Protein 1
Amino acid sequence: MRNKLVYITAVFLFLFTVNISTGSVKAESVSDVKNKINELDEKKSKLEEKNGSLQSDKANVNGKLDKNLEKQSDVKNEMEVIDSKLTKTTSSIEKKKNEIDKTNEKMNQLKEEIVQLKDQIKNLEKEIKELQESIMKREALLKNRLQSIQENGGKMNYIEVLLGSKSFTEFIGRTSAVNTIMDSDKDIMESLEADKKALESKKIEVEQKKEKVEENKKKVEANKVELDKQKAELDNLKGKLDKQLATKEKIQAKLEDEHEELENYKVSIEEEQEVLRKQQATAAKAKQLAQDQLKELEQEAAQQQKQSQSDSGSSGSKEQASASPKPSSGGGTFSYPVSGPITSGFGPRSCTGCSSFHHGLDFGVGIGTPIYASAPGVVSMVSTEYDGSMNGYGNVVLVTHNIKGKTYTTLYAHLNSISVSEGQAVGKGQSIGQSGNTGNSTGPHLHFEIHNGYWKSKSGINPLSYLQ
């Protein structure tokens, strides 16, 4: 945002051409005043041209602001779409994570089943080993029985055994023994067959369990691979969306910065228009003063001509001439703005750990002391401590003066109150406000500066060379 002080030079350009002092007005000719009026008309025309240019600039800025807002709206819509996709993608990723977690649980369960199956296989192997030992024992028993039969002739005829009984009691005994042997042999054979079948069954059961476990393992692993692939694709999509969103956010931030710059530029244009308005008002005031001056000079010239014709050569003529208005005392000089002691002079001054240059005079007066204009002029600027345009001067008044064709500016700072307004003509010794302690002030006082031409920071001249 531009500062009013950037434009104060333009304000002073109008004031340069106007002689405000009553004394100097009388010293100028009708021709001089007419020339000043023409210059003011020319400057007014330039001001109007400048104002038209500012209006065009403002319209252009408004158009850019509208386009900027449209772009921001488009980018925000795109960001909303991307954000919606991100939300869905993030949700899908969470679902895939849950599925992968469940798959991992299944894999853990499968591992436990595999461990249990291994234990079962160990137990089956132990049982098989016991069955094999039992079979071996039974095979050995049968082998011994067959060997015994072979040793007794190679054949065993149970009928002969029974018929060889010498008594009925012996026959009954032999019959019982034969049955026992036959039953024993039968049991051995049946047990052997059952054990063989049990062994085969156990083997089949183990193989089936192994196949089932391997099949489940392959399915779970395949499912895990597919889930990891899907999750990787979703992560990749999320990464792309994050990049897109980050790009859009940068564009949005850039557009917002551009919008802020345009707004600031628009404000600066409006401020410049306000300054132009004040310049136009000041120019109008200056023109009115010049016209009043012209009228007064013409009336005075007419009166002097009439007097000269009616009383030519008389002593009264000389007395009348000597009674004409003259420039005020102290032409090119200024009066003291306040009655009080000077507490800080113009020039370098030092303090503990610092050094600076004082571009004015400080008058040690209490709050509320009347402050007066040092010379006739026009109030070119009024600034308060709240608008921040005068860098620590607090409540401040600037007055532009034209003395003997030369322009000066006086500054009155740290005021408690201000009783004049911008564009107002003030006379020498006219009250413009009261002293105070506003802005960057260490105590109640008046800070007073004099500048050649318009005010410029740190360009003050020593007021003591001009004060009378």
Protein 2
Amino acid sequence: MSRLVVIGGGMAGLSAAYAARKANPALTITLLEAGPRLGGKVLTHAENGFLLEGGPDAVVRYKPWALELMRELGLEGELVGTLPARPSALIHDGKQALPIPAGLQMVVPGDLWALAKTPLLSPFGKARALLDLLWPGKEEDEAFGEFIRRRLGNQVWERLAAPLSGGIYGGDPAELSTLAAFPQLKELERTHSSLIRGALEQRKKRGTREAGGLFASLRGGLGTWVEAITRGLEGVQVYPHTPVTGLERRPEGWRVYTSQGYQEAEAVVLAVPAGTAARLLEPLYLPAARALGEIPYGDSATVSLAFPAEKIPPRVGHGMLMAAGQGFHVRGFTWTDQKWAARAPQGYALVRAYFSGISAREAELIQMALADLERLWGQVPPPERSWVFRWPQGLPRYTVGHLERVKTATEAERLAGLFLAGAAYQGVGLPEVVRLGSAKALQAVAFLSRGVPSAVPHPA
């Protein structure tokens, strides 16, 4: 019997399998992945001197869990920051591209002088934002758009917060649950009675994007992280191309049905998207399955384009985001060769477009990216190479009510030996996914060390 089966080979499942193996090297562990490869949306592609990311391209330094795992895997010497740039990025307001104010903390101004100087906001918009210093707090959850408008005003929402947050989750960021998607901002409101006051304090402790200290990656791309974790799974039985078709709770433990047969286990870490988890849990715990089925997901995609550098206009900083409602297809562009060292051959520019909430074929995505670049540059040469990475239903959306849905979903863990992990629960970023996967693995190891109960509790 496999004492522990981890279902899902994305970063949550990999982190869970690694943490469990480290906690108990004698434990028999099996990792099942439906697709052909491990790592989920972490995918680095190298070709003819180009190094590009199909999914996320960095982790934030102030959330330590991903970096801690990288260092533990021996990747300390491979860590790199973004190239210094002032300004680091711009936001296009539909008419012109303007620098993001320096010192920004998430979406909140953390430098009053930079706020005063930014042309992104009118004098009225700046004055309205400063009223945040006087506004009382509000305990209950609210949609993120309403929260930012209440604290900082409509201009900050449309010209700063919406573009900056639109690429994190699929769909309209205005609909997100503030407590679920941006709990740090609600905490700033609670502890400082002001987002700006809290951001001023945060800025003293965190790096800035302008100095290249906010984001981190690896010299060979984040895919080398997946390779390192996989090497660290020595003794773990890893099965790609093995979708799980069903779960059965038996008196002696769990039976995990796959396209190849079944595995037996005493504990299961279910590290899959919410819809897959809902399907597997429906016969076992219907309330949890229904709650998971109510977590919406959105499509996302990246398009990377290679141009001879001399044939395109000079670019500023690391990239450009698009203000809400201005008719752009993309959420933003990254000037990859200017953000990271050694990502393109000498003489080439590497441009990455990010799409969220758009379902389209590869050729259509390329044309939409080129159309938006033409709007920015006036004329765009044909790219010499293009790469498209599509993630259908790849982004969970933490809409209002998400915390209640997660609470109901995790009641399925009343089933002895079942543990839920992944991006659907407590954060979609790589650090949060790693943290949750590791934590659930340690809970599973502790459960196994206590022995499996003879009676399995059932939901009321």
Protein 3
Amino acid sequence: MKKIVTSTLQQYLGRWQEHGSGPKHHRLANELRRLILDGRLALGLRIPSERELADTLGVSRTLVTAALDQLRQNGFLESRRGSGTLTTYPDWVDSRPTGHVPSDQPTMLDLSTATLGASEHVHSALTFALARLPFYLPGHGYSEFGIPELRAAVAGYYTRSGLVTHPEEILITAGAQSGFALMLRTFGGPGRSVLMEQPTYPFAIDAVMQSGCRARAIPLLPNDWDSTALLEAVRKGGDCITYLIPDHQNPTGLVMGAELRSALSAQFKGTERFLVLDETMADLWLDQPPPRFSGRVDAAGIVRIGSVSKSYWGGLRIGWLRADRRVISALARARASIDLGVSVLEQIAVVHLFNLGDQSLDNRRHTLRKMRKKALALVHEYLPDWTTIEPIGGLTMWLRMPKPIARQVSDWCLRNHLQVVPGSRFSVYGGLDSFMRLPFSRSEDDLRRGLQLLATAYSTVGTKTKGHPQNFGPY
């Protein structure tokens, strides 16, 4: 059972006495409740004793006691003999993340998927692949490691970016998600733990759960990673895999700084644990490229995942793993129970896309910059009370609403033919109920229609939840 460090909790609380109105114990309770609902204080986390908290915050123990009592009465804390006081959720909060709900309804406006239509170069790449295909037809067509041309192309991509890579350090997979699932199957297992960010990519959470592993999470700060907490968790956690998205993090859009990347890399030298870096958004920078590599050689425990689905087209189900040769060999042996390789035709097409260099990606970035600008203007127009950080890359923005009612809002939207994703879907532990992810990679008409519905949903649901137990304090 993990206990939050008192100084970390103090950092999360910030200038809590200036938030809201009413007695100070009410303000403290309200701020702690917000941290629980937002997922910053994980479910089942032991908080400091009343005396510790009072000393750290510089307030009376009576004030802290009153605040914690209020949270216990409203179901956000519970005291257990021998375990202290733990964070929890009241009965009216469903702590489980909302699952993926595929829809084939033609009337449904889907703002749950962050992707673009095909790059203008995809058609020519497939034409090139058809012309090149006869070279491969005499063979058996299986490619457990991937075709040599593509492995060399991906290796060249990393080498040009500053990380010396050989084709033998590349395994071609059926997309990034398939690669991560293969890592979990090969090096995870029932009862083993995987460390993740919170919030994080929801299908990565699903993959961890379905592999039988336990997911642990370190909450992100509002504008960055919590470097101290993350490095401490890596040092002491004993997780078999640490999974992070350092480049235009999904869903927040944050980019990890070079100093933290270097410190993390150092933690995985000479260990049997793995740091899996999901780099599927790395090429979709809009303002400036993210930091890439802390050195020309990776530690043996670092595995990098990439794909072309976000950069070029989701219909090209081609991804890869970049890792130590021994790791690549182990993964290739393990994949036989899943598949014996991926489409040769699509692999040849991706070789052509790599040969084009940045030409196609520059066009994508230009398109996304215009989309981002329009989406931000529409959010300010229809949801002026919501806040967001302007993303510097990727395909999404992370919206924060004034009230923690994201799941109720998304349920209302679904009944009214709009599919959006609430923050809880990106959570390992639950919570994140003040957040919603919005892809800005959609047409202006779709975004305008979707945000109009979202504004109506928030207004409708917000009115109905007056007097709800979650509203025991000012927002």
